[in-house]
Structure formats: structure tokens, C-alpha cells
């Protein structure tokens, strides 16, 4: 990453590449944002369909820029992955999410678990399991309080190394979920190789579950496959009652989406959970 940065600096100095210059500027702003505490997490509940209860929340990172306002992760996570900032950002996300979870536990929400997204690059680091163990210990939490969401492409870049890192995490007792299942470099063999406990069906299939026969067939097959393999299935992007109804009838385990709650700031999410209201 350092050499990459140097190359970019050289090109910048020579005035050869306006795109790189812009990326460099943006990279410096992102580094400054992380240092100045301008990243924050929002939390979205995952609801168990049998009981109607919230089981865990997913932490989703945002960049609060004084000029631009809240910048969504898709506009800076790819940049962070490219310039090597992702390890620092990822470490901050894990620490902040676990700090918040520990606070919620102290407030009586002691049944709550936390799901955190991991980027491909983070899986390349052999120190990741140790770093996560330390973060859990720092906040007095057990590994079973944490679930890590990985994308299939993440696991694919260096499958052997990723499998080793994930197996160690799983051995510690951290749950793993395969995110965006069915998209990207999706391969069923990952299900066999990786120690995952759940599948998250991509919202592109959930969207059409009540209207598009192909989406409905994909969702039905995914749920059946997951259950056949003793895995939990989460449907993400559930936006209305008709999608929810279809998912219930197909035996989906957990749901997440705007129909229940948008991702919320910590205080607002706690108010929602504390009120006893079913989101
Ligand atoms: P994801 O992990 O698939 O997260 C779900 C995304 O869907 C979130 O977007 C969430 O706000 C959005 N969403 C939730 N419910 C609905 C719904 O009912 N309808 C629709 N249309 N969208 C819904 P967000 O927060 O913008 O995050 C986008 C992606 O950025 C995430 O996709 C994840 O891949 C990545 N990301 C977010 N936080 C982190 C992080 O801390 N680390 C890493 N490495 N990636 C992150
Ligand atoms: Ca996710
Ligand atoms: Ca997803
Ligand atoms: Ca996604």
C-alpha cells in the first residue's frame, strides 16, 4: 500500500493523472476523518421470524463529513480497501461496535448480539483473529456475542488463507455469516469449505420475491439449501408485508430491512429495543 501511495504521489507531482490526484485528496480526507472521529456506526435490527424478537443488530459504517453530511460506505469503503486504510477502519468498526454492545448489555439488553461486516482485505491478515479476541476481551464480551459477515468474493481472493483465518475465528466461538449470498463470485463450494453458520440472501432476490417468479424460486431454493446444510437464513432488504409473508411461508429464519427499521443511530435503536415495541 505504501508503494502504491508513492506511485500515486509521483504521478500526482508529474500532473499525469487527475483521477489519482483526486483519489489521493479523498484518501487524505478519509484518513483525517478516521483520526478526527468523524466515522460513526448505525445499527439495523435482525428479527427472528418465529418469535418476532430482535436477535442481533448489524453495524453499518458512515462518514460524517462537515460539508457533505453523511457519506454512505459504498462511497469510501472501496477507496479504503485500495489505499490500505481498511485495516484501521475495520479495527475501529469492531472496537466501536463492541463498545456499544457492552454498553447496551449494561443497560439490560444483555441478550443482544452484534454483527459486523468484514472486508476481503481484512481476511488477508493473519493477525485478525488475535485482534478480534483482544477487542472482545477489552469490552468484556464473549466471542458468541459477535457475528462476522463476509462476502463470497472476500473469501475467494485467497481462499486458503481466508479459510484458515475464518476457521480460527470460528474455533474461538465467533459466528460467521456469508453475506450477499447468490451474487458476485458465488460458489456453492464455499458453503462446504467455510465454517459459516448463516447465509444472508442478497436483497436483489428478496426485492422480487412477491412479484417475480424467478426471484421467488431463487429464494425458495436458497432457504431449502441452507436448511439442508443446517444453516440459518437471513433475508435482507425486506421492505413490505407482502415480501415478509412470502418469506414466512418459505420458512426463512431471520429478516432485516426497512419494513422493520432503517439503520439507526445507537440511541434511537436502543429506544426502539427498550420500548419493547416489535420493530
Ligand atoms: P450490506 O452488508 O449488504 O448491508 C446492507 C445494506 O442494505 C446497508 O446499506 C443497509 O442500509 C441497506 N438496507 C437495509 N435494509 C434495506 C432495505 O429494506 N432496502 C434497501 N434498499 N436497502 C436496505 P449501507 O449501510 O449503505 O451499506 C452498504 C454496504 O457497505 C454494506 O452492504 C457492506 O457491504 C458495506 N459496509 C457497511 N458497513 C461496513 C463496515 O463496517 N465494513 C465493511 N468492510 N463494509 C461495510
Ligand atoms: Ca452485511
Ligand atoms: Ca448483504
Ligand atoms: Ca450488499
UniProtKB/TrEMBL annotation:
It comes from the Bacteria. Residues 23-277 form the EAL domain. This is PAS domain S-box-containing protein/diguanylate cyclase (GGDEF)-like protein. The chain holds residues 608 to 886 of 895 of the full protein.
